[in-house]
Amino acid sequence: xxxxxxxxxAPFGTIPDTNAxxxxxxxxxLTAETAARLKDPFDNPTEYHNFxxxxxxxxxxxxxxxxxxxxxxxxxxxxxxxxxxxxxxxxMLLHFLSSQIGITVVMFIIEKLIALISGNDxxxxxxxYMTQSSIISALNMITFVLANCIFAMIxxxxxxxRAPSLFITRNFNIQYAVEYCVIGLGLWTVSTYASSGIENxxxxxxxxxxxxGMDESTVTGLGMAIDAVYSCIMAPVTEEIxxxxxxxxxxxxxxxxxxxxxxxxxxxLTHGNIPQFVLAFLLGLFLAHITLKHDSIVPSIIVxxxxxxxxxxxxxxxxxxxxxxxxxxxxxxxxxxxxVLLVIYRRTDRIPSTTPAQARRGIAxxxxxxxxxxxxxxxxxxxxxxxxxx
Length: 390
Known about the structure:
Blueprint lengths: L1 H7 L23 H8 L35 H44 L4 H10 L2 H24 L15 H30 L17 H31 L4 H14 L4 H21 L3 H18 L5 H28 L7 H4 L3 H4 L3 H20 L1
Helix pairs in contact: 3-5, 3-7, 3-14, 5-7, 6-9, 6-10, 6-11, 7-8, 7-10, 8-9, 9-10
């Protein structure tokens, strides 16, 4: 009652400077103009309004007739936004810690069991056996799939976002799917060359950005099958649910452009090394953009599946000058065609711009949330340490 009295005295266009969460404004008739404002609260025609949540969940007073959002958010609105960024940050932090620590602990236990059963306590021999068999492949798949799904569901539930809404697709067809896959392959080609250049620079200082054992692969049929299922199906689906599903929805409450960049950075950092960071960041920008456009993670899942399948299949092809030549031709063609398609796509659909009011509600608020900043700093630090240890 006291809270309602405080808000009842507030003039339009302002919110009392209080740490309290804004209560609902007096009930008013929801006119067509007000309903449109809920989907476009910042008067930004470049945003994808179908993707946007009802902003009255953040700022209830926006339902009032003639209400105008102030340039700078008051404390109550800022706290509500900060809560959303904290939800994303906590889920990202728990995802990173559980996947990294979890797989390390489980691997340690399995190594001790193998040493006990075999009577051989040589850790190098045991590690080679685990790497070349299906054990590491199975652990990777189980650990990361569980982390993606569990913390995506926690984030969605915490932010009161319905999971089925992530898959309801708008204005998407086979033509879009093909074009997006070609653009994605072009981005993959660009990132490959960029990663090679960065690796050459790092090598000049006596370090390597590629973690030890990254190029090692399983040699058993079961291990290869597990790798293929994880890379081509499980990883694309569950990673998109976590990053373009939960993370993008939660972070984009006030600023869609900031959400696109932030989720791409987190997507890159979670891969833990520079070659994959470059690819994941570039691809993350594109996947987030098409998710906004089609209001669904289905397009991003399709592109992600295509790229992972392409990389997996080509990695199993025998070494041959002819095969290598064909692959190079495919990559060059995808780079050229993908660049043309991307230019066309960017002329009709751009990553949303940011209004001055949104700029004050994006990174300006997110950086005040320790829960949001912590995982980015920790994951970047981890990647640097991995470079120094190589």
